[in-house]
Amino acid sequence: MSAEHFERLHLERARLSPPLASWIDRGYSQWLAGIPLDVAFDLRPAPGQRTAATKARLKMRNAYLHQAWLLVAGGSDWARAQNLAAAIARLPTAYRRYQLGHISTSRLTHLLCLAQGYGRLPSKPRQLLNICAGVQ
Question: Residue 108: inside a domain, yes or no?
Fold first, then answer.
């Protein structure tokens, strides 16, 4: 976040809920005092825990994987997981093209490219089953 955006957020805090406005106010004051943002906003994870940014990226990646899951054929969740894993295995070439601005005509490939933009995609059917099973 640029300093201008952060300052604008601080100025807009009156439009937010009181607890959120207070949190922004406290963090902004600490940031002005030279404290790093992750410390000022208490965003540092406990030892062994993921950072807030990593959690946000995983949430976005998984949301795209959930959408892709719904497009994959399969008579069971396990068959779907295997088919999604196979689609992910075929993704590297399409993802390189996606990074160059070529949007795939396949909705599934497009969703997987979007997901990969938020982090490494799981390659094993069991991992995909754990993330996507139950999505409807």
Answer: yes
Helix extents (H) in 12-47: 18-32, 37-40
Is 87 within 8 Å of 94 (Cβ atoms)?
A: no
Q: Are residues 107 and 65 in the same domain?
A: yes
From residue 133, give the alpha-carbon distance in Å to each of 21, 89, 114, 130: 37, 19, 20, 6
Whether residue 27 lies inside any domain: the answer is yes
The whole domain housing 32 covers 3-40
pLDDT mean for each 10 residues of the chain (136 residues): 76 85 87 86 82 89 96 93 96 92 93 94 96 84
Token code pair at residue 6: 């952060």
> How far, in Å, CA of 98 to CA of 96, rounded?
5
